[in-house]
Amino acid sequence: MSDFVVICCNCGTEVKPGTPRCPLCREPMGWRRVAWVLRRGVFYGLLVSGSAVGCFWAWDYLHRGVDVYQQLEEVNISLEAAQNDCASRTCPPEVLQAKSHFEEARRQSAAGYHDAALKILQTVRELLRRSQGLQATTVATPVPEAAAGAAAAGDGMVKIAPGEFVMGSFEVGSDERPAHSIALGGYSIAAREVTVEEYQRYAREVRQSFPDQPAWSSPKHPVVFITWQEAKAYCEHQGMRLPTEAEWERAARCGSTRSFIGDGSQAGLDRFAWHRGNSQRAAHPAGTKARNDCFLYDAFGNVAEWVSDWYAPDYYAASPPQNPAGPDHGDDKVVRGGAFDSPVGSLRGSLRDKFSPDSGRENIGFRCAK
Question: Is 148 within a domain?
Fold first, then answer.
């Protein structure tokens, strides 16, 4: 009896049973043929399904991209109209905050994150709606300037009325963004930095050692080489406290959204601040430069100032909208305002610096608030 043969389904060649592949066309035989067909079927099925899903996803992605582009154009028109209104009145904080969010939406769209951009644009629309009809409010109510030689804890205080302001920067400094609207209750802040003679008087009262001051110092100079803990203790002894970072920036900016005090230019700083370009690398007696619109002297330059907040580079992204007090803990404390050895570019209203609370430095002093 002749041996059984198997016919190759692909080329018709007779093949002995058990042969794994056709010797002519090399196609698999028997159960291997069935498995091969199944694998090919699954592969092509997945390929077709994946292509269909990919085409749908690409269509949806492009559609959302077009939608984002159209919404960006619409919101930009509304934003420009709101900014044009600011030419005739004080710009509401909501408009400035909407500008910051709009720029972020544009960046997200350019990076391909269309859903994130659409959510941000909803926030921008809400801010613009809230800004409609808002009236400008007084940012600060200064009291008359203190008499010469008055203690910082006495008459030389500036009363800041409750209100809102835009904190941070729209453009520079990763830890200065995002710019955000902050509401503060009323408070008072010293018009001048604490001086050597004031701190010496305090040191005698509490029987505390007084740190040596630089060669350029005098009784009227801001006191330096004071740690954050020592500055805090001084203010509390006077019935006050260190200002929060938000309180310091609001009083220093005094309603301005410009990067620099005065006319907004770096050249205009000379009238208000001692810095690397005009200080001869030394601090000067407190209050010898022009005061800002809130009656604060040396808010920028001369010596930098301790504030109460712990430092966190990303705090602004999660900062509460009312009376922020900074993170609950950290390694460094925030220092504000720049100093006599700072370049002019570092005397921005939004610039943040940080140092260990245990460090006392030649270019850091403080002022008190309550």
Answer: no
Structural domain containing residue 357: 157-365
Q: Which of 120, 138, 135, 128 is nearest to 94 (CA)?
A: 128
Q: Are residues 73 and 202 in the same domain?
A: no
Query: 197: buried, middle or exposed (CB in 10 Å: 19+, 13-18, 0-12)?
Result: middle
pLDDT digits (tens, 9 = 90+) for 30-45: 655 566 566 666 677 7
- Assign residue 168 a region (left: φ > 0; alpha: ψ between -120 and 50; beta: otherwise): left
**Domain termination site, one of 69, 97, 131:** 131
Spatial neighbors of 267 by CB under 8 A, at least 6 apart, are: none
Looking at the structure, do residues 283 and 336 belong to the same domain, yes or no? Answer: yes
In terms of Cα–Cα distance, which of 314, 356, 361 is closest to 341?
361
Q: Is the domain of 323 the same as that of 183? A: yes
CA pair distance 100, 120, nearest whole angstrom: 10
In this structure, are strands 304-310 and 364-365 parallel, antiparallel, or unpaired? parallel
C-alpha 152/C-alpha 337 separation (Å) is 18
Residues of the chain with pLDDT under 70: 1-6, 9-10, 12, 17-18, 29-42, 50-64, 85-93, 131-155
The domain spanning residue 97 has which CATH number? 1.20.120
